[in-house]
Design brief:
Keywords: Signal. Helix content is 32%, strand content 20%. The chain is built from nine helices and nine strands.
């Protein structure tokens, strides 16, 4: 197991213990098998390379296909991250892929996170001295499109949203911004170490990633199906082969994080 994978698994366990958003499956949910909503299931998502691809491939879409019945009539809507959330809030879609706790106050979230973002900051150490007490709110920041890291970090300063990690790295190197808020493992898998020479990458915190559901009857029905199936597939070991296919997509060690799984019947 790589150091990055081990650290990410450890981080995930800690997040599960710390996160107060519905980690426990209740007996009532486990006793009655939920049903999938009838009709077309509309799902909105941003495009994230390796996770949600326009051809229907990627780690998150693969997981979605595994959770839903094979005969599900699924329609994917690829748009910006903010637009994806808005579509779910306005009940134009039943589900939005990959959101954090702070991304919406209106949506229902899956009981368990299915991934975790490692938020980091990239900067030039000879131009900027960052310490644990440094205030990111005082800096000119670049951020990744589709990642609301400003919300997670409680920042109010205006940032420059970039469409690619390469653009963010170049903006830091050319001193167009002071720092770049970026997903750590995604940066490391996208940019060669040689291209990061002279730059420093500092881990800030982890953000649990959930599925979001429209706050209506069909959305709740889909959420219950997702929560039930994710637990069943986890316990049976069927999730592990899927997660192993994709870099930076780490299956949480839920058993080590506490009694978050309903005992098998």
């Amino acid at each position: 197991m790589s150091t990055v994978t081990a650290v990410k698994k450890m981080l995930y366990c800690c997040l599960l213990l710390m996160c107060g958003h519905g980690l426990l499956f209740t007996a009532s949910k486990a006793d009655t098998r939920p049903t999938i909503p009838t009709g077309v299931i509309h799902v909105a998502s941003d495009l994230w390379p390796g996770f949600t691809e326009p051809d229907g491939k990627g780690a998150y879409l693969h997981l979605l296909q595994l959770i839903l019945p094979v005969d599900t009539e699924l329609e994917l809507h690829f748009t910006s991250f903010s637009r994806s959330i808005l579509m779910a809030e306005q009940q134009q879609v039943l589900m939005v892929i990959g959101i954090g706790v702070k991304d919406s106050k209106q949506l229902l979230l899956s009981d368990l996170p299915f991934d975790v973002d490692e938020i980091a900051v990239l900067y030039l150490p000879d131009q900027l001295q960052l310490t644990e007490n440094s205030k990111l709110s005082m800096l000119r920041l670049a951020t990744q499109r589709g990642y609301n890291y400003e919300l997670v970090m409680n920042l109010n300063n205006t940032s420059y949203e970039v469409d690619s990690i390469r653009t963010g790295v170049d903006m830091v190197r050319n001193q167009r911004v002071d720092a770049f808020l970026v997903e750590k493992t995604e940066l490391q898998s996208t940019i060669n170490a040689e291209d990061l020479a002279g730059l420093e990458l500092r881990f800030l915190k982890g953000e649990p990633i959930y599925m979001g559901f429209a706050n209506n009857v069909r959305g709740l029905e889909l959420k219950r199906w997702w929560d039930y199936q994710y637990q069943i597939l986890y316990r049976s070991g069927q999730l592990e082969p899927l997660y192993q296919q994709y870099p930076n997509f780490i299956l949480p060690d839920l058993a080590s994080a506490g009694s978050v799984l309903t005992p098998a019947k």
